[in-house]
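User: My instructor asked us to take a sequence, write out its structure as tokens, and then describe one feature of it. I'm not sure where to start. Here is the sequence I was given:
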Amino acid sequence: MKPLVVLTQRVHADALDLLMTVCDVALASGNGIYARHDLKELARHAHGLVVGSAIRIDESLLSGCNHLQVVACTFRIPEHIDVAACTRRRAWVTNVMTRWLGKEAEIEAARNVLDVISGDTPRSALNDVLARAA
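Assistant: Let's start with the prediction itself. The structure tokens for your sequence are:
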């Protein structure tokens, strides 16, 4: 069985294709954005989340996420992500470089997911930065 990655919103086809080489991918239909209760249920089974909007990732969403390994943001500043809660659950949190937007950011987030699933440290792990600063 492939690891499950949940996309919190639609991504460029190249990022989706990259993820699908290794993972099963869940994406909401319609506007491609999950209601919070639906996201929480899917996240319980997910190995990775690709977060592309201001969706709050906090302790209440993470409760019961026993398989989660990575929360990969497609933006630079993860102000809606509780990095400490993710770290307690041993899940990486990653972001992308400021100059990347759209397709490039989504592909970088996909690469971060694949790094973690393959057992590597992701390229832009915020948890690692915080651990060294402590």
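For the description part of your assignment, you could build on this observation: Residues 125 and 133 are 13 Å apart (CA to CA). Try explaining in your own words what that tells you about the chain.
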